[in-house]
Write a structure and sequence with these properties.
The protein contains 19 helices and 18 strands. With 556 residues, the chain is α/β, with parallel strands linked by helices. It folds into 2 domains: 275 residues, Glycoside hydrolase, family 3, N-terminal domain (TIM Barrel, Alpha-Beta Barrel), CATH 3.20.20; 147 residues, Glycoside hydrolase family 3 C-terminal domain (Rossmann fold, 3-Layer(aba) Sandwich). The strands form 5 sheets. The chain has a 6-stranded mixed sheet with strand order 13-18-17-16-14-15, with helices on both faces. Strands 6-5-2-1-12 form a 5-stranded parallel sheet. The longest helix is centred in the N-terminal third of the chain and has 18 residues. The chain is globular, with a radius of gyration of 24 Å.
Length: 556
């Protein structure tokens, strides 16, 4: 390889998983970067600078990747986050809940199973490098971007689940994948979204040892293949304004030398504000490699990054040997994954490899076991007269599909129950008017969605939804609040009579919430985080099931 070819192998560029027209600008750019520039790999995403794009369709994704692999001189290493399995980015795959739901369920075997299924579905789709598990300890309730992506706030519990996921992902030699512990050295104790700005982790070295580093040590002991950096400043370890991604004190001195990690080190996306607001594309690429990173993920301009690194070698800021060390790791990983022998996927086999009934059942089990009852005045939950309650879904957007399954599942059990969907674009007056039009009810069930998303900056209820909930509580009728997503919502609504947390926004969590409200299984989840001023870590009110599953046939 030429120096330019070697540097190109370190660069990973984003793609959406769709099959763009071959005459489109998007397609021509991808072809040029893969065939001519010879980048080392791809990352499947469905967001860009705050704009969410549709998830990929399995067959289109696999066919597209096969075409790209045929264009590549050296096999492409294809990656994606897949933090809650392939369903995070791809439709028609197993719908696992967010990591914090596994923390609430408290069973490492469930995380191990998720790792196994994630590996199987990833390889079936043509994805080889899974940027999971999240090893961050979410000990800051105001964290806007980690939150439910973390297993929880207890370092030892997080470490056990991180270890289990890695073991599961490595358990089937027929479906080898690379696993990733992220975001080093820990992104849980921040109140800023690093997609927008540089965040700061202010703990001292002893606190970092006891908390942030514990899951990463466990991941390394479990044989994790790679570690992803965090765009956070850690004054206890490096200069106070230097992102960990660019800090040799963190990536080389701590990760490589002290912790003994010898695998791949990949940057978090270099187009994120935590890096791009302080450093040019070229300077960030050079500094990341100087710090100890092996791969450059999503530089804003791949060509600029490539030229800058080549120039840095030519002028002595980097050595050719340093570049070749990282290239060798990438090529060895590709060989270990068998890409030198078979880089294409069998599109015809997808139907039998994705979203199996068994995996779907286990994913629902995780969602069910995660449901945690934090407050239950007058034993409101399970509902004693569910058909006489009003069910209100608080969706995050007017055109969101959030709550559709929740409403359907309620309707199956209590066809006559009053329901309404509200969203953050509505005024309090419009919300109140909607509720006034509902039949009289004895209690309110509020299913509030609060997801974690890049570039959003917060995870609280938006618009006038908080005021609406407060007004509902003030009406005097008991309110059962169901948090689908962010479990810290209860801090804002201390007057609710009952509080259920599911720790995820996925469809199985909607179903689990309804089943818990209707008393169809034993509620046994425990808080994997502290809700300040409300509930301590590990709390959870156990409730026995009160009825068998009773679904009323719906008219055709």
């Amino acid at each position: 390889m030429t120096l330019r070819d070697e540097v190109a192998q370190l660069i990973f560029i984003p793609f959406s998983g769709t099959f763009p027209n071959s005459r489109s600008r998007e397609y021509r750019k991808l072809v040029r970067l893969i065939r001519d520039t010879k980048v080392g790999g791809l990352i499947l995403v469905n967001y860009a600078k705050g704009r969410t794009t549709p998830k990929a369709e399995p067959y289109a994704l696999a066919a597209f990747l096969n075409r790209m692999q045929r264009l590549a001189q050296t096999p492409l290493l294809v990656s994606s986050d897949f933090e809650r399995g392939a369903s995070m980015r791809v439709n028609d795959t197993t719908l696992f809940p967010h990591a914090m739901a596994f923390g609430a369920a408290g069973d490492p075997e469930l995380a191990r199973y998720e790792g196994e299924i994630t590996a199987r579905e990833a390889r079936a789709l043509g994805v080889h490098w899974v940027f999971s598990p999240v090893a961050d300890v979410n000990n800051n309730p105001d964290n806007p971007v980690i939150n439910i992506r973390s297993y929880g706030e207890n370092p030892q519990a997080v470490a056990a689940l991180v270890k289990a996921f890695i073991e599961g992902a490595h358990s089937d030699p027929k479906n080898p994948v690379l696993t990733t512990a992220k975001h080093f050295p820990g992104h849980g104790d921040t109140a800023d979204d690093t997609h927008l700005n540089l965040a700061v982790v202010s703990g001292d070295r002893d606190r970092l040892e006891q908390t942030e580093l514990t899951p990463f040590r466990a991941a390394i002991e479990a044989g994790v293949d790679s570690v992803m950096t965090a765009h956070v400043a850690v004054p206890a370890l490096a200069p106070p304004d230097l992102p960990a991604t660019l800090a040799p004190q963190i990536l080389t001195d701590l990760l490589r030398q002290e912790l003994g990690f010898q695998g791949l080190v990949i940057t978090d996306a270099l187009d994120m504000g935590g890096i791009s607001k302080g450093y040019s594309t070229g300077e960030a690429a050079v500094r990341a490699l100087q710090a100890g990173a092996d791969t450059l993920l999503m530089p804003p301009d791949p060509d600029v990054a490539l030229r800058a690194v080549v120039a840095a070698v030519q002028d002595g800021r980097l050595t050719r040997r340093r570049i070749q060390q990282s290239v060798l790791k990438i090529l060895e990983a590709k060989e270990r994954l068998g890409l030198d022998r078979q880089r294409l996927v069998k599109v015809d086999a997808l139907g039998d490899l994705l979203d199996s009934p068994e995996a779907e059942e286990r994913a629902q089990e995780v969602a069910d076991r995660a449901v945690t009852l934090v407050r239950n005045q007058d034993s409101l939950v399970p509902l004693k007269a569910p058909e006489r309650a009003c069910y209100l879904v608080l969706a995050e957007g007017r055109y969101s599909s959030e709550g559709e399954v929740f409403a359907q599942d309620v309707r199956k059990r209590a066809p006559g129950a009053a329901q309404a969907t509200l969203d953050a674009t509505m005024s309090v007056a419009a919300m109140d008017d909607t509720v006034r039009k509902l039949p009289a009810c004895e209690a309110y069930v509020v299913a509030a969605f609060s997801s974690v998303a890049a570039y959003r900056g917060s995870v609280g209820l938006a618009g006038d939804l908080p005021q609406f909930v407060q007004d509902l509580i003030a009406s005097g009728k008991p309110v059962a609040l169901v948090a689908l997503g962010n479990p810290y919502l209860l801090r804002s609504f201390p007057g609710v009579a009952a509080y259920l947390a599911t720790f995820s926004t996925v469809v199985p969590s909607e179903t689990a919430a309804v089943r818990a409200l209707f008393g169809e299984f034993n509620i046994r989840g425990h808080l994997p985080v502290t809700i300040p001023g409300v509930a301590a870590y590990g709390e959870g009110i156990p409730v026995q099931a009160t009825r068998a599953v009773q679904i009323v046939p719906q008219p055709q």
